[in-house]
C-alpha cells in the first residue's frame, strides 16, 4: 500500500532526521512504528503525507508518487497529527465537515454522523472545540482524518493523553477500521498498544529503521521463555547433578528458574530431560509456570543493545 | 493547469470556511472600518473640507472619497489575508491544508479569494456610507470596479505573503503599520500631487499607492495625477510581482514545508 524507498531527510539546520529509510506497508494491516523520542517517527509520517519535503528517496502510496502524483496519493491518506491543533471557535460538526470538503469530497452528513458516533462525539457535535476536553479534541482530530474515507490512516501517538477506558474504545475504533480494509500506521510509546493492536512492528532509532517484523514472529524470535519451578523444600545451591541445565536459584532457594528459547527444536526435549533429572535427584516440585517476555522487554533490549 | 483540473470542492470549502470565520467577527470587521471612514469624512470632508476650495474642479469632500476607499481596501485586504493564513500556521491546523489533495493555486484561490471578497464587500459598504456625507459621481463605473477588484486581489496576495513570512504577531502588524499606512497617507488620498513642491512630486511617483489612488479617482471624476493607463499598468505589475513571490513561496516551501 505504501512503499518508502531510500528516504532521507536533512533539515535546514543540517540535522539528519531520516537516514535512507526503506519501508513497505501492506494493504489492510496495522503497522506500529515504535521508537524513542526524536527517533524520526513524526518526520517519516510528515514526509509521506506531504508536510515535509524529502531530501532524497521517494514515497509511493498505492503506486502513486506522493510528489509527482500528489493528488491521487493524498486523497487516500488520513492523518491524525501528534500535536493537538484546533481552530478553537468552530464546532465539532463544522470542522469535521470542513475536512471532508477540503479533500474534495461532496458533503455526506450520514457519513459524518457515523464517524462522530463511532468516536462518541455525537453529543458534542454542536460544541465549539474550545469547550472540549483534551481527549475529545484528539478524537475530533481522528474524526477529521476519517471524514474523507481514507484508505490509509496515520495515527501519530493517538492515545497520548487519553484515559485507559477511552484508549480501549479507540482501539476498538481502529480494529473496526481495519475490518473495513483501512490500512493503519500508528506510532506509540505504549508498547502494550503495539502488542495489543499491531500486525507488524517497525522500530526506528535515530532516523534508521532497525527492525521490521511480524509481531508474533518478533515475540517468538526474540522472546526467550522462563520456566519457574516452585520447590517443596528450599535449596542452598543448584545440585551438581543438574549443572548441565541453565538453572538459577530464585526466591531464596524456594524456586528454580530455567531460561530457554521456545523456538529452538531441541528445547522441548531439554525440558523433559530437566524434568527427568529433577526426578532422579529427588526434588519435588510444588508448582510451575512459564513466562514469555513481552514486547516491552524486547523493545527495551533492542534500543539498549544498539545504543 | 486548466480550469477542469481545478479541485473546486476543495477551493469552495476553504473559501467558505474563511468567509465563515469573518462572519463570526462580523461586527468588528465591518463596523470599525465604517466608523473610521465616517470619521474621516466628518473631519476632512465636512470640517476642514469646507475651508478648502475645490481640487481640480471637484469639491474637497468628494475628492477624498476614492482615496479613502482605497485606504480601507488596502489595509483590509492586507490584514484579512495575512491573518487568514497566519492563524492556521500559528495554531498548527495548517497541516490539514498542506496534506489535502490541493494544488498551490487552489490554496491561494481559497485564502486570497476570501480575503479579497471581504475587502470588496467592505469597499462597497464604505462607498455607500460616503454617499451619506458627500454627493459624488462615478464617470467610469466599469473601470472603477476593475480597479477595485485588481487592488483587492493584489493586496490580498501581499497580505498572504506577509502572513507566511511573519513568525509572530508583531511582524504581522509591522508591515501594515510601517509600510502600508504611510504609503497610503502619502499616496494622494487627501491631496492632489500637484499641490506638492516639484521635488516631492518626483518622490511621490515612487510610491505605488499613488497610481492606485490616481487611477481610482479618475474612474470617479475623470481627473488624475498620472494617466489611468499608467495606473492600470502599475497595478498589473504589482499583481504580477505578488503572484511571482507566491509561486516562489510554494515552489520552495518557504516557511510552510521544512
Ligand atoms: N522542522 C524541523 N527542523 C529541524 N529539526 C527537526 C524538525 N522537525 C523535527 N526535527 C528533529 O528531527 C528529529 C526527529 O523528530 P521527530 O519529531 O520525527 O521525532 P519522533 O520520533 O516523532 O519523536 P516523539 O516520539 O518525541 O514524537 C528530532 O531530533 C527533531 O528535533
Ligand atoms: Mg513524534
Written overview of the protein:
The complex is a heterodimer of chains A (307) and B (258). Chain A has 307 residues and is α/β, with parallel strands linked by helices. Chain A is 35% helix and 28% strand. A six-stranded mixed sheet of chain A has the order 6-7-8-3-9-10, sandwiched between helices. In chain A, strands 2-1-4-5 form a four-stranded antiparallel sheet. In chain A, strands 12-13-11-14 form a four-stranded antiparallel sheet. Chain A folds into two domains: 219 residues, Rossmann fold (3-Layer(aba) Sandwich); 70 residues, 2-Layer Sandwich (Alpha-Beta Plaits). The mean pLDDT of chain A is 86. Chain B has 258 residues and is mainly alpha-helical. The longest helix of chain B has 32 residues. Chain B starts with 7 loop residues before the first helix and ends in a 6-residue tail after the last helix. At the A-B interface, helix 2 and helix 3 of A face helix 1, helix 3 and helix 4 of B. The site of magnesium ion has 4 residues of chain A, from helix 1. The site of adenosine-5'-triphosphate has 13 residues of chain A, from helix 1.
- If you consult CATH, what is the topology of the largest domain in chain A? Rossmann fold
- Helical percent range of chain B? over 70%
The small molecules bound here are: adenosine-5'-triphosphate, magnesium ion
Number of strands of chain A: 14
User: Gyration radius of chain A, to the nearest Å?
Assistant: 25 Å
Instruction: Report the mean per-residue pLDDT of chain A as an integer.
Output: 86
Q: How many strand segments of chain B?
A: 0
Give the name of the CATH superfamily of the largest domain in chain A.
P-loop containing nucleotide triphosphate hydrolases
Question: Major sheet of chain A: size, sense and barrel closure?
Answer: 6 strands, mixed
Name the helix and strand elements of chain A from N-terminus to C-terminus, one letter apiece.
Answer: EEEHEEHEHHHEHEHEEHEEEHEH
Pairing-aware structural class of the strands and helices of chain A? alpha/beta
Gap from first CA to last CA of chain B: 26 Å
Low-confidence stretches of chain A: none
By helix and strand content of chain B, what is the structural category?
mainly alpha
Distance between the termini of chain A: 32 Å
Give the CA-based shape of chain A.
elongated
Strand content of chain A: 25-35%
CATH architecture grouping of the largest domain in chain A: 3-Layer(aba) Sandwich
Return the string of H and E elements of chain B.
HHHHHHHHHH
Q: Could you name the ranges of chain B where pLDDT drops below 50 across 5 or more consecutive residues?
A: none
What is the helix tally of chain A?
10
Amino acid at each position: 500500500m505504501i512503499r518508502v524507498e531510500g528516504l532521507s531527510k536533512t533539515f535546514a539546520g543540517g540535522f539528519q532526521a531520516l537516514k535512507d529509510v526503506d519501508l513497505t506497508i501492506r494493504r489492510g494491516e496495522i503497522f506500529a512504528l515504535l521508537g524513542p523520542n526524536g527517533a524520526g517517527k513524526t518526520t517519516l509520517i510528515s514526509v509521506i503525507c506531504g508536510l515535509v519535503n524529502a531530501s532524497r528517496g521517494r514515497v509511493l502510496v498505492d503506486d502513486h508518487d506522493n510528489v509527482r502524483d500528489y493528488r491521487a496519493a493524498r486523497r487516500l491518506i488520513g492523518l491524525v497529527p501528534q500535536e493537538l491543533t484546533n481552530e478553537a471557535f468552530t464546532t465539532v460538526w463544522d470542522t469535521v465537515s470542513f475536512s471532508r470538503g477540503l479533500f474534495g469530497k461532496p458533503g455526506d452528513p450520514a457519513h459524518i454522523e457515523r464517524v462522530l458516533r463511532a468516536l462518541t462525539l455525537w453529543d458534542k457535535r454542536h460544541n465549539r472545540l474550545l469547550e472540549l476536553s483534551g481527549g475529545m479534541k484528539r478524537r475530533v482530530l481522528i474524526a477529521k482524518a476519517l471524514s474523507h474515507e481514507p484508505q490509509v490512516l496515520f495515527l501519530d501517538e493517538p492515545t497520548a493523553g487519553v484515559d485507559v477506558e477511552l484508549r480501549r474504545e479507540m482501539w476498538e475504533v481502529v480494529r473496526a477500521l481495519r475490518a473495513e480494509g483501512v490500512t493503519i500506521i500508528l506510532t506509540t510509546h505504549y508498547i502494550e498498544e503495539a502488542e495489543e493492536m499491531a500486525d507488524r512492528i517497525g522500530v526506528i532509532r535515530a532516523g534508521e529503521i532497525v527492525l521490521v517484523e511480524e509481531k508474533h514472529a518478533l515475540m517468538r524470535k526474540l522472546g526467550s521463555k522462563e520456566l519457574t519451578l516452585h520447590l517443596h523444600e528450599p535449596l542452598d545451591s543448584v545440585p551438581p547433578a543438574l549443572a548441565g541445565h541453565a538453572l538459577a536459584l530464585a526466591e531464596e532457594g524456594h524456586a528454580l528458574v530455567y531460561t530457554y528459547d521456545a523456538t529452538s527444536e531441541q528445547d522441548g526435549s531439554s525440558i523433559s530431560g530437566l524434568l527427568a533429572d529433577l526426578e532422579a535427584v529427588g526434588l519435588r516440585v510444588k508448582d510451575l509456570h512459564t513466562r514469555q517476555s513481552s514486547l516491552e522487554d524486547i523493545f527495551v533490549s533492542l534500543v539498549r543493545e544498539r545504543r | 493547469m486548466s480550469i477542469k483540473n481545478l479541485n473546486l470542492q476543495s477551493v469552495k470549502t476553504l473559501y467558505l470556511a474563511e468567509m465563515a470565520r469573518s462572519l463570526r467577527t462580523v461586527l468588528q470587521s465591518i463596523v470599525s472600518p465604517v466608523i473610521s471612514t465616517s470619521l474621516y469624512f466628518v473631519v476632512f470632508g465636512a470640517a476642514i473640507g469646507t475651508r478648502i476650495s475645490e481640487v481640480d474642479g471637484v469639491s474637497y469632500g468628494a475628492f477624498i472619497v476614492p482615496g479613502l476607499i482605497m485606504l480601507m481596501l488596502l489595509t483590509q485586504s492586507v490584514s484579512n489575508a495575512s491573518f487568514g493564513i497566519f492563524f492556521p500556521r500559528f495554531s498548527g491546523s495548517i497541516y490539514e491544508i498542506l496534506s489535502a489533495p490541493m494544488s498551490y493555486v487552489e490554496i491561494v484561490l481559497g485564502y486570497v479569494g476570501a480575503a479579497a471578497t471581504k475587502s470588496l464587500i467592505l469597499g462597497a459598504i464604505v462607498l455607500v456610507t460616503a454617499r451619506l456625507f458627500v454627493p459624488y459621481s462615478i464617470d467610469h463605473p466599469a473601470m472603477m470596479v476593475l480597479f477595485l477588484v485588481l487592488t483587492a486581489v493584489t493586496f490580498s496576495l501581499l497580505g498572504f505573503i506577509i502572513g507566511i513570512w511573519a513568525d509572530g504577531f508583531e511582524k504581522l502588524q509591522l508591515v501594515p503599520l510601517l509600510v502600508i499606512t504611510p504609503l497610503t497617507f502619502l499616496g494622494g488620498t487627501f491631496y492632489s500631487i500637484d499641490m506638492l513642491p516639484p521635488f516631492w512630486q518626483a518622490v511621490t511617483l515612487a510610491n505605488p499607492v499613488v497610481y492606485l489612488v490616481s487611477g481610482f479617482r479618475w474612474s470617479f471624476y475623470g481627473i488624475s495625477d498620472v494617466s489611468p493607463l499608467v495606473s492600470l499598468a502599475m497595478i498589473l505589475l504589482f499583481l504580477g510581482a505578488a503572484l511571482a513571490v507566491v509561486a516562489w513561496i510554494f515552489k520552495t516551501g518557504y516557511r510552510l514545508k521544512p
